[in-house]
Amino acid sequence: MKYLRPIIDLVLYGNFWIAVCAVAMTVQTQFILTGTVSWTPFVGLVGFSTLMIYAIHRYIGLKKVRIFTDTGRYFIIAKFKNHILFYAAIGGIGAAICFLLLSLKMQMALVLPGLISLGYVIPILGGKKRLRDLNQLKIYLIAVVWAWITVILPILDMGKLGIDNGTTLLLFLERMLFVFAITLPFDIRDLKVDGHTGVETIPSQIGIEKTKKLASIVLFVVLILAAINLLLDNYTTPIFIAMAVSCASTNWLIKNCDTRRDDYYFTGLIDGTMIFQFLLIFVATFVETI
To answer: Residue 150 sits in a domain of what CATH number?
Structure first.
């Protein structure tokens, strides 16, 4: 573990893991609707821009949590902040190249979520506050923007937006609620930090146990939406089973999270549920064809 930790730290806190999560959610939408994965410039943009935005978020966020930089993930981020800035630059260059390769329609559709994402990590409110610093707003921003970028935009990129708006809406709601559920544990993890910065979150208002119950309810609704997608033939039976396994395993992880957990549990495992969900769907579909 002594030699493995530096590698894990690089993957997690260099923001490569969350970039892969974003790509996984994006190609999952492609795969569900077409049965294939296409490595388009848009998929590249999602990966590179996620790398850039999360790197900027970590770097700027250090200024607000200086008293926590002697331990845990903040110690690692502070120690390698110049590395993280370098990765942000790589992400920015890659994102710019991919953006230029997109159609004008796709470029225009990216403006609003792009501005919201930047406002989430860069102080734009009076030069001091980010959108994430507004009480309870951050979790809703994360859920909506992630669903927009990994569902609506891939569908638009494939030229399928408007063909079946009911399917699009169901997929959007399902993804938004799933992201909402897996973001709640991070608010539990960040209770002390958010308390220090004066940001009220759902766990700070209703408590940790009720927050976990809320996540369970939300994941159950995700499963109901997946069942509706199955009934409407948007999902095959293997995809529905994969979604059920994803919701159940994610719920187990959330139930067992608390503020004493190592950050690997959150940044690694809970974020990793996005990759796991895609792999479940991909493998389940592949097994069906054998």
So the answer is: 1.10.600
Q: For the chain, what is the domain count?
A: 1
- What does the pLDDT look like over 139-197, one tens digit per residue? 898 999 999 999 999 999 998 765 566 888 999 999 999 999 999 999 999 888 877 77
**What are the two backbone dihedrals, phi and then psi, of residue 129, each rounded to the nearest 5 degrees?**
-105, 145
Three state DSSP letters for 105-136:
HHHHHHHHHHHHHHHHHCCCECCCECHHHCCC
Query: Where does 150-270 have alpha helices with state H?
Result: 153-157, 165-189, 191-197, 202-206, 208-231, 237-255, 263
**Backbone region of residue 123 per phi and psi (left: phi > 0; alpha: psi in -120 to 50; beta: other values):** beta
What's this model's pTM, rounded to 2 decimal places?
A: 0.92
Name residue 200's amino acid. Answer: E
Closest CA to 267 of 204, 202, 211, 189: 189
Tell me, what amino acid is at 178?
Answer: F
Q: Using CA atoms, how far apart are residues 94 and 52, in angstroms rounded to an integer?
A: 9
**Stated length of the chain:** 290
* Crossing angle of helices 16-34 and 41-61, rounded to 10°: 150
- Which phi and psi angles does 125 have, rounded to 5°? -95, 100
Print the domain residue range for 165: 5-289
